[in-house]
Hints:
- This is tRNA (5-methylaminomethyl-2-thiouridine)(34)-methyltransferase MnmD.
- GO terms for molecular function: oxidoreductase activity, acting on the CH-NH group of donors; tRNA (5-methylaminomethyl-2-thiouridylate)(34)-methyltransferase activity.
- Residues 144-228 form the MnmC-like methyltransferase domain.
- Strands 6-7-5-4-8-9-11-10 form an 8-stranded mixed beta sheet. The chain has a 3-stranded antiparallel beta sheet with strand order 1-2-3, with no helix packed on it.
- A hairpin with a 4-residue loop joins strand 6 and strand 7.
- Helix 1 crosses helix 2 (68-80).
- It has one domain (30-226): Rossmann fold (3-Layer(aba) Sandwich), CATH 3.40.50.
- The radius of gyration is 16 Å and the shape is globular.
- 30% of the residues lie in helices and 27% in strands.
- By secondary structure, the protein is α/β, with parallel strands linked by helices.
- S-adenosylmethionine is lined by residues 25, 62-63, 65-66, 68-69, 89-92, 143-145, 161-163, 171.
Amino acid sequence: MSDVKIIVTEDGSHSLYHKVLKETYHSFHGAINESNYVFLDKGIRYWRTKEGLPSSINIFEVGFGTGLNALLAAQFAEENRVNIHFHTIEPFPLDLEVVKDLNYTSKINDGQYTELFNKIHEAAWEEKIEISEYFSIRKDKQRLQHIEDHFNNSFDVIFFDAFAPSKQAEMWEIALIEQCFNLLKDGGVFVTYSAKGQLKRDLKQVGFEVETLPGPPGKKEMVRATKNAST
Length: 231
Ligand SMILES: C[S@@+](CC[C@H](N)C(=O)[O-])C[C@H]1O[C@@H](n2cnc3c(N)ncnc32)[C@H](O)[C@@H]1O
């Protein structure tokens, strides 16, 4: 029996409920709304504007899960004609039988990205795969705890999309926050839906500049942290 079941969130998009953790993969207030707001608007769009609209972006995601964030990043790449390389890690990949029932592509541009979403999920693991003219992905079946140092200083934006601190506390330990700092290039940004006080203190402790931003629908606040190593 599968550990997950599909639920419908308040914007009509699906998410998954993890029966063992008793936790959802996205906000109940809207999976697509949350991902677009936290990771696309406050992450990619913010970084790109700040850096003078560069034509390529390297993203690192913690927790590939349903692939929703990858799909939205691919949509951004296509619509803005920007090259995105998306590196994501996931130690517990979902069964494709579950993924095929998710309604994400029907909610985005009338199904225009269905083929792209399928390609993202069918892409081989542990290697860089070109999905479209503007979007490539590398999916590693790996834990954040085991990321190798040679990826340090490689990424512009980190999507930190682990399960909540109350459900998977080890993902939010300061050693992993420092790992994220090291993975980013100078000027890179880390975004997450959580705004826990301890997280903000740890982000500052490892060297980030930290902002508390208004949260996505249904959540008061979120956090963005910038690596300004030279200041
Ligand atoms: C909140 S869900 C991810 C949501 C995902 N970004 C999406 O849009 O569906 C958290 C994900 O982190 C994964 N995860 C669990 N332990 C992890 C670890 N040690 N390193 C990286 N990811 C982990 C889970 O399996 C799960 O898919």
